[in-house]
Write a structure and sequence with these properties.
6 helices; 14% strand; two-stranded parallel sheet; 28% helix; 4-stranded mixed beta sheet; Rossmann fold
Amino acid sequence: MGKGKLAIRICQWFYDSELHDLVIVVPVIPEPVWAPSLMEWAIARDVPTVRTGKYSDVVPENIDLVMSVFYDKIIRKRYIERCNRIINLHNSPLPHYRGVSPINWALKDERYEHGVTIHDVTPGIDDGPIIGQLKYSIYPEHDEVVDVYNRALEYGFSLFVNTLPIIDKIIPRVQDESDVIYHGSEDNHLLGNRRFFTKEISNRNNS
């Protein structure tokens, strides 16, 4: 389930793997115009695709692993309980920056370190036990959101390819609730010139 370049790279990894079968793809609908189309990638390779973008249209019982890569729907508890396992790749060093726009908030807060996390999906928002995490430097004095986002795609794929082959051996660790930072979409107006991919676009949209 997901969208964009990283979801495509991860699907390609499963598609090429001799140890896994890519059973079905659930793209975010509508797909973002600024990212390559996951749906087009899947259709071109005859991979079954849920064109509604609704995860509930997939029966998960016979699927060993469900993976979310920037998927924008909250997975309901009753569906999670039907899955053998469902994991998510989140664009932050959890428990920091649960929720939306994690890169935007990290730059807004003038952080010098960010990260990517793979975690088990639970009924809460990005609060499941951490399977793997990779942290990297960011530079708020000159980085735009798009710069960190593109960097995150590379780090996210690196974390994925180094985690997935040993995922059954990893004991996930519970997140420290005392260290949580969370932002929902209702906070977006507080981002100022970090709201969009560049300060220029943000200033233009806020004028």
